[in-house]
Amino acid sequence: MNILTKWLRHYLPTLTATDRQLADDLTLRGIAVEGVHELGAQNGSLFEMDITTNRVDAMNHYGIAREAGTIYNLPLTALQDVTPNLRHSERSEARQPFPIQIEAKDLCGRFTAQVLRNVTIAPSKGQIAEYFTLLNQKQISNAVDASNFTLLGMGHPTHAFDLDKLEGGIIVRLAGKGEKLRLLDGTECTLETDDLVIADHKRVLALAGVMGGWDSMITAETKNILVESAWFAPAAVRRSSRRHGLHTDASHRFERGADIDAAPIANALVSNLILEAGGHAEGTLIDVLIPEIAAKTANRPAIELSVRQVQRHLGTTIAPEGITSQIVSQYLTSLGCQLSPKTSDAFDVKLPSWRLDLEREIDLIEEVARVYGYNRFANTLPTALPVKAHPTAAKEAAVRTRLLALGYSEAVSSTFASESDAVLTAADKKTVPMENPLSEEASILRPSLVPGMLAMLAHNLNRDVKNVRLFEQGQIFTGTVPADANFTSDVHEAPQLSLGVIGDFNDARLYPAEDAPIFELKGVVESLLSLFTPTGGATALTFIAEAPAWLEPGRSGTAVVNNQPIAHFGELAATQLEARKFRQPVYLAQLDLAQLYELPLRRVTAREISRYQAVERDFSFVFPNSVHWYSIAAAIQTLAIAELQSLTPIEVWRNEKKYPGVYSHLIRTTFQSHDRTLRDEELTRWSTQIIDALTKLGGTLRA
Questions:
Q1: Which helix H or strand E contains 78, and what residues bound it?
Q2: What does the DSSP assignment read for 459-523?
Q3: Using CA atoms, how far apart are residues 636 and 633, in angstroms rounded to an integer?
Q4: Burial label, 689 (beta-carbon count in 10 A; 0-12, 13-18, 19+)
Q5: What is the percent of the chain with per-residue pLDDT over 90, rounded to a whole number?
Q6: Residue 84 has pLDDT above 70, yes or no
Q7: Dihedral (Cα; 370, 376, 379, 382), 10-degree rounding
Q8: pLDDT value for 478
Q9: DSSP state of 608
């Protein structure tokens, strides 16, 4: 937002700091000034400011002036003293008060109204015209500009209705299903039953806290006005704003928590600015306040603040006197708090109505530190505390190190997914929808890392990166969220690993190029599983030709450990390739890290290299197509031959036309002892055991 230093100095007439110094000091106190533009000697500067969402009180000139006054310990001129003719110079008695009724008492905590008669609608003059010109703010008419001036000046939204267009009184209520409202921008919206509206006895006049209606707007012919200033619940305004796609200056403030005590002052300010062009007020200000809402905002219980706690949390300052009781009292009083001494070391602090972000003692301590200046504290290191590693940290590091060694790059994707992606990858598990999603493409907490991996692969392809190997370790979410406050959430969070491969591959000794990435992913899965010790022994890992719907049937598989699926891998389904507009095959793997981390890490041991000769033996077998390598390896490893150092598939040969249903497999074994030279009779015995084991699998030893 833009702030005029000339306007700030109107509230702080004794401010002597230069605009540049003021910008630096505000920024150091968390009120960030991102740009300073000089407007001339008589006009000061324009600040481009970035105000955090919790500081709605600083989203206006008076709020910034309050911060500056606190920093420099300067008196802040009260709004009543700087507002021209805040007390109505002309006022007629009302025959009866204008009827105001609040039906939605939990959503509208305060509603003020002032009737103005015989007003003159004209262009703005004087201070409003001057400041709006410097801000490049559009000027419409004195009535509309008065509302905008009040919003920019003190930060509270107001609205003016053409009184002659109202039917009866004002009712603040929830909309009826399907009610229509034509807004000030000319668009028409259809209301829902939880939309908070301002209505008369006949129709809806405005979407409360968001935008006024066309049918009651101020025009050049307007003679009588009803000025409204109210307080609306942040959740109600946010809900209507998001639903109808309307983000206005008013909704921006109300969504973040407006000042309930500012409504009467804002109403009086707007009324008097309008009356400067002519007219008079009828009756006194009508002010309807809901005590229950006031108790939660302006009348919150006081917070006990201990000066000793302030000193303990903030530590040593550069100045020798440190943070004293006087400094604490000065800063908090300047910010609007009311301090009552409780003991020699503590205060009861009544919170200002405009600071709903202050809730606990630590919030007040943070305010003291912020105003004092973080740059004025001594640089000290915190006391070293013992660090306890996360239970799975070593396992995560082992998986990451292995994947990096295999040539994969780590990536991070969004935690959210679209509903279609969630349904595809969540299988039979329930998904967790977001209450306020950023978009339809990010409406679900991801039940899988696969959608994010596909997005990252597409991102690389779109930038002509043809060969990509990525992995991501992250959390996935499944379960349910409550439909209302009477039910508890049942959301489960679990770690998962996703792998993605795209690129060009060459023929290998055991498989053609088009199958290479599938076997690569299978090998990566085996390599990762080799880091852990299966509880079921050497035969705990198996593979089956089944996979989820997002993988292509016949070109995918599932790794099973202890009879539980732990990983899926293979080629992305053709339907998904087409839907996502991929022009080349994409290969994916997904590992259940929660299940994997239940296994202990394999203990790595090192021993001296054997001084004795290694001996190789090759076995050439014919197997049925139903016999896979993992069955062959498991059968040989079950023999538990201690001297068997390696087992390697050398060659696979098939000729389905001549030898249907079978294939030839050349297997190489390597034997070696660490304490002796192997004898022929030992090698013969082990070879016989291997032949017998493979024969039981259905294999036939080739001559």
A1: none
A2: HHHTTT---EEEEEEEEEEEEE--SSTTS--EEEEEEEEEEEEES-----SSS-GGGHHHHHHHH
A3: 5
A4: middle
A5: 74
A6: no
A7: -30
A8: 87
A9: P
Neighbours of 272 (CB within 10 A): 21
pTM of the model as a whole: 0.62
Q: Report the distance separating Cα 207 and Cα 191, nearest Å.
A: 9
If you search the block for the tokens 């909704």, which residue do you land on?
A: 251
Please report the pLDDT score of residue 85 as a whole number: 45
**Residue count (the chain):** 703
Distance CA 556, CA 521 (A): 10
Neighbours of 282 (CB within 10 A): 21
- DSSP state for residue 107 in the 8-state scheme: T
CA 613 to centroid of chain Cα atoms: 62
Helix%, strand%, coil% for the chain, nearest 5: 30, 25, 40
Tokens of 440: 């339809």
Q: Give how far Cα 661 sits from Cα of 345, 546, 656, Å.
A: 90, 21, 7
Distance CA 214, CA 185 (A): 8
Q: Are 156 and 262 in contact (CB under 8 A)?
A: yes
In three-state secondary structure terms, 619 is strand
What tens digit of pLDDT does each residue of 29-63 get?
A: 999 999 999 998 889 999 999 999 899 999 999 99
In 39-131 the beta strands, taken as DSSP E runs, fall at: 45-50, 91-92, 100-102, 108-117
Identity of residue 603: R
441 in the Ramachandran plot: left (φ > 0), alpha (ψ -120 to 50) or beta? alpha
Q: What DSSP designation does 216 have? A: G
Do 673 and 614 touch, CB atoms closer than 8 A? no
Q: How far is CA 372 from CA 11, 28, 239, 331, 350, in A?
A: 22, 10, 38, 8, 20
Express each pLDDT in 401-413 by its tens digit: 999 999 999 999 9
The residues with which 102 forms a beta bridge, in sequence order, are 172
Strand intervals (E) in 51-169: 91-92, 100-102, 108-117, 159-162
Across-strand partners of 281? 91, 116
Q: CA 113 to CA 283: how far, in whole Å?
A: 10
Sign of dihedral through CA atoms 234, 236, 237, 240? positive
Query: What's the alpha-carbon Rg for the chain, to the nearest Å?
Result: 37
The answer for 216, left when phi > 0, alpha when psi is -120 to 50, beta otherwise, is alpha
Average pLDDT over residues 281-285: 92
Helix (H) or strand (E) holding 289, with range, is strand 280-289
Estimate to the nearest angstrom the gap between the alpha carbon of 609 and the chain centroid.
54
Average pLDDT over residues 661-677: 93
The answer to whether 410 and 422 have CB atoms below 8 angstroms apart is no
Give the count of beta carbons closer than 10 Å to the beta carbon of residue 545. Answer: 12
Phi, psi (rounded to 5 degrees) for 115 = -90, 130
Rounded Cα gap, residues 26 and 74, in angstroms: 14
Instruction: Tell me which DSSP letter residue 106 carries.
Output: T
Residue 499: CA count within 13 A, CB half-sphere: 31
Angle between helices 325-334 and 307-314 (to 10 degrees): 90
DSSP string, 19-63: HHHHHHHHHHTT-EEEEEEE--TTT-EEEEEE--TT-GGGSSHHH
Cβ within 8 Å of residue 570, ≥6 positions away: 518, 521, 547, 551, 552, 555, 556, 557, 587, 588, 589
CA-to-CA separations, 325 to 246, 315, 338, 378, in angstroms, rounded: 46, 15, 14, 19
pLDDT at 165: 94
